[in-house]
Specification:
It is a single chain. By secondary structure, this protein is α+β, with helices and mostly antiparallel strands. It contains two helices and five strands. The longest helix has 14 residues, at about 15-25. Bound molecules: zinc ion. Zinc ion binds near residues 40, 42 and 43.
Length: about 90
Amino acid sequence: MLPCRSRCHDLRRETWVGTLLAHSLDSTGMNESLMDILCCPLDKQDLELEVVRRDDDEVLDGRLVCTECGEEYPIEEGIPNLLPPDMREGAPA
Ligand SMILES: [Zn+2]
């Protein structure tokens, strides 16, 4: 077995986004342990965490940057927005 991030890769996007939001809303911010299960929704590559504001181990504001495609996903008030760019608010319904 290779030490890959299969937990992330195996989950369908809808499922892991839901899980992620549930996790986030349970606490005051995004726990850094979530980095273990987060990946880019576009290419499933690792994300790099850039913290702007934190409270202990909870990230309140910051961003996640894909190490592969460079796409940035904002973290606002502890909630990471991992929707692909074309699904974010402002996109046509
Ligand atoms: Zn990516």
